[in-house]
Amino acid sequence: MKFTLSDEQRQFAQALRDALKQSTAWETLLALGVHEVETAPDLVVAFLELGRAAVPGPVVESFAVLREPKATLAWPPHVPYIVDEAEDTYAIVDGVRHRAIPEEPRKSVDPTRRLHTFRLGEAIDQIDAEAFNRGVLACSAQLIGLGRTLLERTRDYALQRKQFGKTIGSFQAVKHQLADVHVALELAEPLVFGAAVTLNTRDVSAAKIAAGTAAYQAMRTALQVHGAIGYTSELDLSRWMLKVRALVTAWGTEAYHRERLMAALCP
Amino acid sequence: MDLDDTDLEFRREVRTWLHDNLPGPLSSMDTAGGFEQHREWERTLAKARLSAVSWPEEHGGRNASLTQWLVFEEEYWAAGAPGRVAQNGIFLLAPTLYAHGTEEQQNRLLPRMARAEDIWAQAWSEPEAGSDLAAIRSRGVRTDGGWLLTGQKTWSSRAAFADKGFGLFRTDPEAERHRGLTYFLFDLRAPGVTVRPIPQLDGEAGFAEIFLDEVFVPDADVLGEPGAGWRVAMSTAGNERGLSLRSPGRFCAAADRLLKLWREVGDPADTALRNKVLDAWMGAQAYRLHVFGSLDRPIGAEASVTKLFWSQLDLSLHETALELLGPNAELAGQPGSWLDGYLFALAGPIYAGTNEIQRNVVAERLLGLPR
């Protein structure tokens, strides 16, 4: 499977990256046409950037699954609560899309994810199984993007912070942890792009497992290297860290995806 | 994968040829008899012009594209074909010869290498210079028409039975560590050369020490400019750490065999072991996709990223297989077995620059952290 980005994809990624540095508001996403993304590889390109910027909101739900400018959903058991708020709110149960009426708010580990319990409204239509895989794929790409930013910020901090009269980035114990995170992210990303080409269950589950593992490693390393300052909410590192924690179990836990992967490999 | 009709035709040809010509299991290439069996297999490959498919036709290759080379590797390992006794020459020295060698050197050395008439050993490490290669002390001194090499090399794979060696020697003792080194090609049977085999973990003579006492090397066997050896050698190191020695085909084939083993003897309730099987499969896929996605990029410090990855993948893949085999994992003496592969994989994090050094390279050259 050969996958290299086209010039258009590179330009789209760059435009998103630049714009999201200024604003992560929903209007910014719409202005850049994220809601018009069609193919799965383009979706990966976009969600890598959404992850890098830790964009809040029901991005996976709107752009990858429902393909609407702003809507959201619950998809129990893997997305058990309605994620964030939107005018159109759905719940997908046994492959059928229903309207969903939000009830009680629930607090997420990620303060920018506003969750709600719900009750089912009228049934609307069937949802194809591929929609779930697109959600998993977008979530995987988002995790890689989050991991990339965590690594970059940690590298920058290691270059600036001094202890024992030296930049901490010169200590091998720090260097080796960052190198391992870099390797994990570099080798997880090809699985995500590979899954975008096939969009089959086997490859999508492998992508989610690898992306979740790499991003989580990036998160743990970021906190360890930043030390106590990373544990505060005064430094906004927690935006990235806590979103990783939430997304690692959203759209299917690692255990669920391992079951799916094994079932696909050894039917 | 983006394969065109020519690639697919090539895949079919290789698959058919391997099916018709594959030998049974060979003895270990680290025994005298096994080495000759492997040399014979290299000759058989060469007759079909399959020993170095990406080389030009005049050197014994087929001018195949990198994609076709990867296809060849996938078919080769999927068929369960033997390890390549000629790999140090074909995958490490040859790319350096193409990058830095003269036309005369290429025409003289490459066809013989393709036909396994010369099997090459890498002679880089020294007792005091392993991953810190710039610390080498073996020296080359100018003489009429060439150089005299003196010193000691060690951990030289295949050197016990190989024909020729390539390595760095210090030719300007006044210069800084990385400068004043020259890249030499030399005959392992030349007067003044003593080779002492060193038994490896498994007791076989997989590597050797090479002692050189005023060994004459003509100017024609200097690779690159005298004094530029470090730069020349680093292009070889990039190859060893990067793609050429560790093509994804080998890992994909091993991961497929591991899945087969899991189906045969795995306990579905043992999710911890199941997860290791899945990690091995995902690792091989990730590496394969990574390689296909980076074929059009030159190998630089990124080679350290892949070296870290495949050396760990190779080891955990084989550890998982041994765990599945249970008490039978200890059975030795079966060529091509999981145990054989495991012993080979154990060396992965050590050779081609230890993984600790690779982590430094990644941190310093790719992430920009200070030395």
> CATH class of the largest domain in chain A, please?
Mainly Alpha
The name of the CATH architecture of the largest domain in chain A is Up-down Bundle
Structural class based on helices, strands and sheet pairing of chain A: alpha+beta
Shape of chain B: globular
Overall average pLDDT of chain B: 92
- Put simply, the count of helices of chain B is 11
**In angstroms, what is the radius of gyration of chain B?**
21 Å
Largest inter-chain interface?
A-B, 36 and 40 residues
How many beta-strand segments of chain A? Answer: 7
Largest sheet of chain B: 4 strands, mixed
Kindly report the spatial arrangement of strands forming the biggest sheet of chain B. Answer: 1-4-5-8
> Helical percent range of chain A?
55-70%
Helix content of chain B: 40-55%
Poorly predicted spans of chain B: none
Number of β-strand runs of chain B: 8
Keywords (chain A): Flavoprotein, Oxidoreductase
InterPro entries (chain A): Acyl-CoA_dehydrogenase (IPR050741), AcylCo_DH-like_C (IPR036250), AcylCo_DH/oxidase_C (IPR009075)
Domain Acyl-CoA dehydrogenase/oxidase C-terminal (chain A): 130-265
Pfam family, one (chain A): Acyl-CoA_dh_1
Tell me about this structure.
The complex is a heterodimer of chains A (267) and B (371). Chain A is globular. Chain A has nine helices and seven strands, in the order H-H-H-H-E-E-E-E-E-H-E-E-H-H-H-H. With 267 residues, chain A is an alpha+beta fold. Chain A folds into two domains: 7-43 and 58-126, no CATH class; 131-265, Up-down Bundle (Butyryl-CoA Dehydrogenase, subunit A, domain 3). In chain A, helix 5 (129-160) runs antiparallel to helix 8 (237-249) and helix 6 (172-198) packs antiparallel against helix 7 (201-226). Chain A has helices at residues 7-22, 26-31, 40-52, 59-66, 129-160, 172-198, 201-226, 237-249, 254-265, and strands at residues 71-74, 82-83, 88-93, 96-107, 114-126, 162-163, 166-167. The longest helix of chain A has 32 residues, at 129-160. The mean pLDDT of chain A is 96. Chain A has a five-stranded mixed beta sheet, covered by helices on one side. Chain A has a two-stranded antiparallel ribbon with strand order 6-7. In chain B, helix 3 packs parallel to helix 7 (248-265). Chain B is globular. Chain B has helices at residues 5-21, 32-47, 66-78, 87-100, 103-114, 229-241, 248-265, 271-293, 302-325, 338-346, 355-366, and strands spanning 120-122, 139-143, 146-157, 164-170, 181-187, 193-198, 207-218, 222-223. Chain B is built from eleven helices and eight strands. In chain B, a hairpin with an 8-residue loop joins strand 6 (193-198) and strand 7. Chain B has 371 residues and is of the alpha+beta class. In chain B, 48% of the residues are buried. Chain B: Belongs to the acyl-CoA dehydrogenase family. Chain B: Keywords: FAD, Flavoprotein, Oxidoreductase. Chain B: Residues 121-214 form the Acyl-CoA oxidase/dehydrogenase middle domain.
